[in-house]
Amino acid sequence: MLQPGSDLPCPAALAPPAGRPAAASDGGAVAGSAPGTWQGGRVTDSVPADQAATGADLPGPTDPAAWLTLPDVAERLDLSISKVHQMIRDRELLAVRRDGVRRIPADLVANRTVLKHLPGVLNLLADAGYDDEAALRWLYEEDSTLPGTPAVALGGDLAREVKRRAQALGF
After folding, report:
1. CA–CA separation, 64 and 55 (whole Å)
2. How far, in Å, are 23, 52, 112, 115 from residue 87 at the CA level?
3. Which stretches make up the Rv2175c C-terminal domain (predicted)?
C-alpha cells in the first residue's frame, strides 16, 4: 500500500500484523519481553553464559593444537567450507565453539577423510538425546575398557564396539 502520489509506503502498511507485538528499539528485543532478551527469548546461545565451562572443564582435547578450525578442515579434506558446514549439519562431523570459533577435534579427521564410523556414532548419540557438547564429552571421556577414549578407539579396531556402546545409550 503506497501513499497517494508517492513511492512511500502507507504508515498502516508498516504496522505489525494483528496479534504480533511491535519490535522494541533495544537491540531486537520484542515488546513485552524481559529487558536484555533477544527475540523474546526464542533464540538462545549454544551454551548459556551461566553454564559455560572454561579451561579444563571443557570436553575434548586439551591441547590447542589438537583442534582444527573449519577452514583447516576444509583444506585437509579438500572440500569447500560450505561442504564442511553441510557435514556438520548432517552429523558427519562434530564442531563446538571454543573461544568464539567453531572447532573440530583433529582426531576425528583422519588423513584426508572423516573417521569411518564417526557419522554413525554421532547420529546414535543425537538419537539418545546428546547435544554436541555432551557427545564430545562422551567421545573424550576416559574408558578403562577401551584403549583411552571412544574417540581414539574409533580410529582403530574397536570402532564397532564404540558404535555398540553409543547405541546402548538410547535404551
Report:
1. 11
2. 35, 25, 14, 13
3. 116-170
Which residue carries 574409533 as its cell? 154
114 membership: H or E segment, kind and range: strand 113-114
Averaged pLDDT of the chain: 77
pLDDT tens-digit series, residues 99-133: 889 999 988 987 788 998 999 999 999 999 999 99
In contact, 61 and 107? CB cutoff 8 Å: yes
Task: Look at the chain and count its residues.
Answer: 171
Closest by CA to 59, choosing from 151, 138, 114, is: 138
The SS3 call for residue 143 is: strand
| H or E segment and range at residue 128 | none
Rg of the chain in Å (alpha carbons): 22
pLDDT, position 87: 95
**Separation of alpha carbons 97 and 163, rounded Å:** 25
The SS3 of residue 95 is coil
Domain residue ranges of the chain, discontinuous segments joined by +: 67-169
Which of 8, 97, 7, 99 shows the shortest CA–CA distance to 46?
97
